[in-house]
């Protein structure tokens, strides 16, 4: 009898700790269907209007979870074409999750988060995640954990109907902070002011670089692997000071190359965050803006920026233009050990700063 009890205990532990033998893609489909049904029940009486998920790159027991994308698209309002199936960029091989959104009115954005494992699913919510001035993220963090900021900002961007290119770049960045939003203006400015002719191409130098660079790379298809994007370690809020002037609010460098073996043109950009206009828009005083402890600022600032989607020149300007006569001049900006700010603006005697 003792041996029988030990045998039963062993197999009970095995069932609890390990996936059932023969776990397959069909099991993922079954789990996904159950998760959707649970989410719909939690959101009732609303409908599922959007879905954010990492299913594109997720894995369960060695199986791809992309079948979940097909399941999500069976909901009437959820599809890639409608811009309501939002595939959030995550590292390959993580366990799948999906956040289902219901938007019954302009001030309500209900969300449930479902995490799926081989043993079943876990559901959190629903919570109204519509962000306004002063919204406390504590309940979101408690319910959704480390995914909270990412899902809440992306869902609010979707609800605010930000441009598809903006939302796509934000999904690549994995959240929609105001730093990503600024990249949309940078791209619109570049394409409007410095269009390409045949044989020309762009190279962008993130000096300084911030969250906008992920959107710039995605929206303009400029990647390091194709030699279209380079970044430099330089504080985005530091001025570059030379004997000839002080260059504030630097916003990156765009290079338009004339051809593989030719020179081109380089423009050093500036980004004006329009802080005073934002404070007026948000009804804020002179208090310091604490972006880390007041994450609602990102959603509200994004709405401020959304007023000017067709006016990138309100935020972007050129502080210096330089003609690059040869291919060597282009290469000098990005070769190992290069300082493109010094080459284009002149020497800043205090850089690198010593402590």
Description:
There is one protein chain. With 355 residues, the chain is α+β, with helices and mostly antiparallel strands. 35% of the residues lie in helices and 22% in strands. The protein has a five-stranded mixed sheet, with helices on both faces. A five-stranded mixed sheet has the order 9-8-12-13-14. A two-stranded antiparallel ribbon has the order 2-3. A hairpin with a 6-residue loop joins strand 12 and strand 13. The longest helix is centred in the N-terminal third of the chain and has 19 residues. The N terminus is likely disordered.
How many extended strands? 14
Helix-strand string: HHEEEHEEEEHHHHEHEEEEEHHEHH
Main beta-sheet annotation: 5 strands, mixed
Radius of gyration: 25 Å
Beta-strand percent range: 15-25%
Overall average pLDDT: 91
Class per helix and strand makeup = alpha+beta
Low-pLDDT segments, ≥5 res: 1-20
Structure described in brief:
By secondary structure, this protein is α+β, with helices and mostly antiparallel strands. The chain has 12 helices and 14 strands.
Secondary structure layout:
Layout: H1 2-17, H2 25-43, E1 50-53, E2 59-60, E3 63-64, H3 67-72, E4 85-87, E5 97-105, E6 108-117, E7 120-128, H4 138-144, H5 148-159, H6 164-173, H7 178-193, E8 201-206, H8 212-220, E9 229-231, E10 240-241, E11 246-247, E12 250-257, E13 264-271, H9 275-282, H10 296-306, E14 316-324, H11 327-332, H12 340-345
Helix pairs in contact: 6-7, 6-8, 7-8, 7-10
Sum up the structure in keywords:
35% helix; 355 residues; alpha+beta; five-stranded mixed beta sheet; globular; 14 strands; disordered N terminus
């Amino acid at each position: 009898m003792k041996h029988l009890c030990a045998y039963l205990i062993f197999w009970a532990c095995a069932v609890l700790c390990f996936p059932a033998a023969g776990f397959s893609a069909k099991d993922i489909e079954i789990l996904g269907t159950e998760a959707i049904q649970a989410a719909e029940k939690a959101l009732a009486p609303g409908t599922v209007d959007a879905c954010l998920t990492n299913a594109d790159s997720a894995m369960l027991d060695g199986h791809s979870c992309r079948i979940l994308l097909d399941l999500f698209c069976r909901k009437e309002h959820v599809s890639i074409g409608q811009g309501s199936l939002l595939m959030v960029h995550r590292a390959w091989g993580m366990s799948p999750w999906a956040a289902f959104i219901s938007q019954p009115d302009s001030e309500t954005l209900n969300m449930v988060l479902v995490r799926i494992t081989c043993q079943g699913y876990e559901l959190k919510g629903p919570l109204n995640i519509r962000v306004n001035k002063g919204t406390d993220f504590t309940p979101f963090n408690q319910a959704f954990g480390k995914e909270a900021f990412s899902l809440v900002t992306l869902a609010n961007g979707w609800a605010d109907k930000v441009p598809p290119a903006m939302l796509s770049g934000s999904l690549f960045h994995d959240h929609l902070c105001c730093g990503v939003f600024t990249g949309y203006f940078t791209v619109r400015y570049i394409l409007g002011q410095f269009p390409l002719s045949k044989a020309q191409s762009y190279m962008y130098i993130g000096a300084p670089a911030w969250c906008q660079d992920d959107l710039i790379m995605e929206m303009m298809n400029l990647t390091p692997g194709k030699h279209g994007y380079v970044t430099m370690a330089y504080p985005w809020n530091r001025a570059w000071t030379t004997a000839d002037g002080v260059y504030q609010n630097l916003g990156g460098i765009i290079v338009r190359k004339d051809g593989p073996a030719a020179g081109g043109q380089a423009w050093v950009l500036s980004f004006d965050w329009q802080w005073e206009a934002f404070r007026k828009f948000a009804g804020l005083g002179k208090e310091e803006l604490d972006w880390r402890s007041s994450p609602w600022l990102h959603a509200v600032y994004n709405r401020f920026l959304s007023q000017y989607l067709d006016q990138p020149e309100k935020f972007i300007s050129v502080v210096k233009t330089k003609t690059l006569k040869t291919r060597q001049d282009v290469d000098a900006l990005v070769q190992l050990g290069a300082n493109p700010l010094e080459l284009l603006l002149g020497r800043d005697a205090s850089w690198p700063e010593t402590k």
